[in-house]
Amino acid sequence: MSKVLLVHAKGGPPLGHVLARTAAKAETHLLALSALPPAVADCARRLCASVVLPGEAHRSDLVSLIVARAKDIGADAVLTFSEYAVVAVAEACEALGLAGAGGAAALARDKRLMRRTWQRHGLPQPAFRPVATEADLHAAARALPGPLLLKAAWSAGSTAHQIIRSPHEASAAWRRSRAVMAESAQLGYAELHVAEADADFVVEQIVTGTASDWFDEPGWGDYVSVEGVVADGVFHPVCLSGRMPTVEPFTERAGITPALLAKDAQDRIVELARRAVDALGLRDCGTHTEIKLGADGGMWLIETAARFGGAMTVPQIEEVFGLDLVGMLVEHLTGRPVEWPGQALTPAQARGAAGSLVVLAVDGDGEAWRDRRVWDFPAVSARVPLSRGSELSVVAESSLADGQVVPVYDPAAGANTMAALCLLSATDARTVLRDFETLVDALPRVLPAARREEVSA
User: Fold this and answer.
1) Contact 398/313 with Cβ under 8 angstroms?
2) Is the pTM of this model over 0.85?
3) Is CATH 1.10.600.10 the classification given to domain 218-349?
4) pLDDT for 308-347, tens place per residue?
5) 337 burial type by CB count under 10 A (0-12 exposed, 13-18 middle, 19+ buried)
6) CA distance readout (Å), 108 to 84, 201, 361
């Protein structure tokens, strides 16, 4: 049986899902660079041939650590599903002579390099400037047409995003984004391999999306993601996921599989994703490409990742299209033949629909809840009226325990202030969207009010 070293860090699909699918295909050894979620700690020890935890791992040279552990176990493949470990794992695979994302992995991680690469290939994207200092930001704010979005170059989950509507807001945005990156690093949501990555930023023009030109009904967000894989340097699109509108500044609230797009629209989106991935030169990895949708068929590339989509994107695809992407990637990386989809799967090929909702303390209009609430999934399950045939569950490893106070939403911190992650299965994507709208409206009513002492604690 093949041996696989799975490198775990925060972010990505739920670890429990990844472990079960990886262990079904290969002898799995886990190298944990962040603490295991309590909900899956026992599962990890049961499924894995070995588990090395953070306290046992010296991370001053992460690539050397991964290489040494892979050699110790005789690994046939090394992989990760975390954005924060993608570059280190790719470099380790290069050193070991194993299949991986390749030397271009950093182009799909550093937003500055990504945008420069796409610029050289003439691909549509917002106007941008790399930013290393506050002075750089002021210069960019004067040169680029506003409004602008300041992003940390190595961030994920909409962390440290700041909207700059006029040049005089640049200094405050700079201070806040840098502070959030420092806070995120303390929580483990930060690049693990590149030194001082929290100091790298990019600022870009905010382009105007138009969901109504692409979707037949209201409620969809103005961007989609193309889920795919690169195998032996060839891009294979798998499907498209739609979104609800983001919460300001651009925090994702929900992803829905499949995206309800007409076939010709989907084909045009997939072709742009293909050009974006091809330009980056990736070799063997999952991909997740986000694309903004504009009026009259216009599109802009947001970003591409050299890994599968996070949250519940991968489990959603398995439920809706019957594809075990984790297991298929493990098989490919260990040299076994895999039959990838010949073209992106469409809503007509879906078996129902599924979506994941990030629980944030904001209502459907993006306004903060008027009072503090306590997370209580049984109350949500019992009191929120969903459509016939819809099933709602909570992803325990990505959620607060019942009884904990829901954090106040912080626009700059993005998904760092989420309370829970919920999965909804339904008969079709329209039903998922409508049920999520019902759920978002109901949460501040059905969740128990927090007592003063709970908030203080």
Assistant:
1) no
2) yes
3) no
4) 999 999 999 999 999 999 999 999 999 999 999 999 999 9
5) exposed
6) 12, 15, 31
